């Protein structure tokens, strides 16, 4: 009897939606590393086409012009794997749903979409029995989605804390070390490909909030959307804040913090002072770092490049290979896990320390008056510093012990009404 000859395995058609900072680098890897990828997957990955808005625009020479198309929907139809790196809610959502309903596996870097309406996509993928992967949506090159979603699936995560936005970290770093103002540093981050198409998403904390929501959902098996995250960006941070931070032995960082307590889940994004000897204070440029605290594993730290085309393409391609292996060998990635459905806590329930800077009249008894009001609100002062008075005005810098956000807000409102208080120059949380 003749030995059956196996049919030559067909390559997998990969549709790329978007050819900007990230898409260009994904195309480069697919085209320049095709042999390695074929060896890892078992069949070739064929770049079937690249959907863009403008096919005439000048592009990196690596991009074959004949693969560019404005017909994203047509490209999606018939693809085995659809990679979405176009960003925005629509048409990205519609195209991903179309891909899923057509039986394609999908890979996306679009945290804004996942944090706004991820469950619709997860449910559709579940119904269609296809993979949905999104490692690049959180912290660029750093493998963090897979560790939280899969490696820690047998543990109990308590807290996720970190720097998850490369642009704002770059901006704060440049303000601290390069003497740049916020606008100049944001422009540099845009040139380097770190910033979102609309950089207010970075500066105002929306990007970090989206990532925090994705991580919290995975870590706590509870649906958390971007709207559930208490969010404050870095727009209010001044060069003076950054300089004061250095003077008091801190660095200013935009932190994402997701915690699970007995009462529920709290997720927040805000700038904070981090002690100079804390590992997060040493995270420079567009790098990201994330601490995960789990009951069994203890503390874990993830560090690497959080933005930029090549680092992000690395995460995208890891997902493409995983999805492709499932196509060839069978199997499927994990589904959404929401069984815990923990209550989401209001923002003012958070407990943290604060540094408050205020300008006061340089008169006897003022410090006692301020301290009295702070104490009356149940907030305890840790340290007080006073600068050399100029023209009858002194600057006080109070650092508190841990207090509830709601208590601090009430304290600040009361301190502001005191006669000798001329201005509250800044209120920053102290973390780490
Ligand atoms: P870019 O703005 O550089 O690129 C977007 C691409 O999508 C462009 O090629 C654009 O076409 C195309 N596009 C946009 N809208 C449409 C549309 N309606 N139809 C067809 N094509 C469209 O974005 P990035 O590469 O920076 O980011 C892409 C995604 O990756 C976003 O979701 C972002 O949040 C995410 N991400 C980005 C990171 C980064 O460091 N940049 C890091 C991690 C995630 P055209 O070229 O013709 O304008
Ligand atoms: N704009 C994002 C950042 C890109 O600066 O971190 C990576 O998600």
From TrEMBL:
Record-stated family: Belongs to the homoserine dehydrogenase family.
Pathway as given in its UniProt record: Amino-acid biosynthesis; L-threonine biosynthesis; L-threonine from L-aspartate: step 3/5; Amino-acid biosynthesis; L-methionine biosynthesis via de novo pathway; L-homoserine from L-aspartate: step 3/3
Organism: Promicromonospora citrea
InterPro entries tied to this protein: ACT-like_dom_sf, ACT_dom, Asp/hSer_DH_NAD-bd, HDH, HDH_cat, HDH_CS, NAD(P)-bd_dom_sf
Cofactor requirements of the protein: a metal cation
GO biological process: one example: methionine biosynthetic process
Residues holding NADPH: 111
Origin: domain of life: Bacteria
Identification of the protein by name: Homoserine dehydrogenase
Domain ACT residue range list: 355-432
Functional note: Catalyzes the conversion of L-aspartate-beta-semialdehyde (L-Asa) to L-homoserine (L-Hse), the third step in the biosynthesis of threonine and methionine from aspartate.
Matches recorded under SUPFAM superfamilies: ACT-like (SSF55021), Glyceraldehyde-3-phosphate dehydrogenase-like, C-terminal domain (SSF55347), NAD(P)-binding Rossmann-fold domains (SSF51735)
Annotated L-homoserine binding sites: 196
This protein's UniProt keywords: Amino-acid biosynthesis, Methionine biosynthesis, NADP, Oxidoreductase, Sodium, Threonine biosynthesis
Active site annotation, chain numbering: 211
EC number assigned by the record: 1.1.1.3
CDD domains assigned: ACT_HSDH-Hom
Catalytic activity: L-homoserine + NAD(+) = L-aspartate 4-semialdehyde + NADH + H(+); L-homoserine + NADP(+) = L-aspartate 4-semialdehyde + NADPH + H(+)
GO molecular function: homoserine dehydrogenase activity; NADP binding
A Pfam cross-reference name: ACT
Residues that bind NADP(+): 17-24
């Amino acid at each position: 009897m003749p030995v059956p000859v196996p049919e030559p395995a067909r390559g997998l058609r990969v549709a790329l939606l978007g050819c900007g900072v990230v898409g260009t680098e994904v195309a480069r890897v697919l085209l320049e590393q095709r042999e390695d990828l074929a060896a890892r997957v078992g069949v070739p990955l064929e770049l079937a086409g690249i959907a863009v808005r403008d096919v005439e625009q000048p592009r990196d020479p690596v991009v074959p012009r004949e693969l560019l198309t404005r017909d994203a929907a047509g490209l999606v139809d018939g693809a085995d794997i659809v990679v979405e790196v176009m960003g925005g809610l629509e048409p990205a959502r519609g195209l991903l749903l179309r891909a899923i309903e057509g039986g394609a596996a999908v890979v996306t870097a679009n945290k804004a979409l996942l944090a706004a309406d991820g469950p619709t996509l997860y449910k559709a993928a579940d119904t269609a029995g296809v993979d949905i992967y999104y490692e690049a949506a959180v912290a660029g090159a750093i493998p963090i989605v897979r560790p939280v979603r899969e490696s820690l699936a047998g543990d109990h995560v308590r807290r996720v804390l970190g720097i998850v936005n490369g642009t704002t970290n770059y901006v704060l770093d440049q303000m601290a070390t390069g003497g740049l103002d916020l606008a100049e540093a944001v422009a540099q981050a845009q040139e380097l490909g770190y910033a979102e198409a609309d950089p207010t998403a970075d500066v105002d904390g929306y990007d970090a909030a989206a990532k925090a929501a994705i991580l919290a959902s995975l870590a706590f098996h509870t649906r958390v959307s971007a709207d559930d995250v208490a969010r404050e960006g870095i727009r209010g941070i001044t060069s003076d804040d950054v300089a004061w931070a250095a003077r008091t032995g801190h660095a200013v960082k935009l932190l994402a913090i997701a915690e699970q307590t007995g009462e529920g889940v709290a997720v927040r994004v805000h700038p904070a002072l981090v002690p100079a000897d804390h590992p997060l204070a040493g995270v420079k440029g567009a790098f990201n770092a994330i601490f995960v605290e789990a009951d069994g594993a203890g503390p874990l730290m993830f560090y690497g490049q959080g933005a930029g085309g090549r680092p992000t393409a690395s995460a995208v391609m890891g997902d493409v290979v995983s999805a492709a292996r499932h196509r060839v060998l069978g199997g499927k990635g994990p589904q959404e896990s929401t069984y815990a459905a923990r209550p989401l806590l209001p923002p003012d329930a958070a407990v943290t320390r604060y540094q408050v800077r205020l300008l006061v009249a340089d008169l006897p008894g003022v410090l006692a008056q301020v301290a009295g009001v702070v104490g009356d609100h149940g907030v305890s002062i840790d340290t007080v510093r006073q600068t050399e008075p100029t023209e009858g005005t002194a600057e006080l810098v109070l650092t508190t012990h841990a207090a509830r956000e709601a208590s601090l807000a009430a304290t600040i409102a009361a301190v502001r009404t005191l006669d000798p208080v001329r201005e509250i120059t800044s209120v920053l949380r102290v973390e780490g």
